[in-house]
Amino acid sequence: MQQFGLGFGQEIETLALGAHQSDEQSNDAVQFQPNFIEDDDAIAVFKALSQQIEWRQESLWIAGKERQVPRLVAWYGDTEAEYRYSGKLHTPIPWIRPLAMLKERIEAEVGSDFNSVLCNLYRDGKDSMGWHADDEKELGKDPVIASLSLGQERSFHLKHKTVPKLKHKMTLTSGSLLVMKGTTQQNWLHQVPKETHITQPRINLTFRKIMT
Ligand SMILES: O=C(O)CCC(=O)C(=O)O
Ligand SMILES: [Fe+2]
Prior knowledge:
Blueprint (H helix, E strand, L loop, with lengths): L12 E3 L12 E6 L5 H14 L6 E4 L2 E4 L3 E6 L5 E3 L2 E3 L6 H14 L5 E7 L6 E4 L12 E7 L2 E7 L6 E6 L4 E6 L1 H4 E5 L9 E7 L4
Antiparallel strand pairs: 1-2, 2-13, 3-4, 5-8, 6-7, 8-15, 9-14, 10-13, 10-15, 11-12, 11-14
Bound molecules: 2-oxoglutaric acid and fe (ii) ion.
């Protein structure tokens, strides 16, 4: 039943986020697996998801003005996994096969289970996601968030919330899996900046567990 050959047993890089000595409580951890899905399979998965996901243009009210979110989004998951983000309550769309299969593979790899996935389509380099932490209370205290990237590679930035010199830049390549866990969301912000020279699309899936 393995439609996409997801790579197992590959090298996993652990990014030492630079926890500072004074803070013994923190356990910031980011792991990166560049070739979780092999190149050809990543292209096939990208195509399937760009067609099958019900992409939506959402908007936000900022300072009294309605603004379109600079990317397309969709929220899939178990029925009870309702999630508030960008100020709105999102009821999940029921799982579709390719997302359910990816979820199972990623659960096996990461050793955590997920009940939902936020899908983002960055149509080109003008699409982006601003600085934020995935620290909504629905995600629980120290959430494990598994982020799969497909298509155009994009920069991903991390910066510490209180220690300005602590920052990291990574490139999220097609087929890569980034796992953020421990106290990462308590202590760090992340973003996908605009890169206006980029013309090609990227899909990012963040698998999450909503506490119900
Ligand atoms: O697109 C990405 O790599 C990050 C997405 C993200 O941070 C999120 O969905 O919360
Ligand atoms: Fe995020």
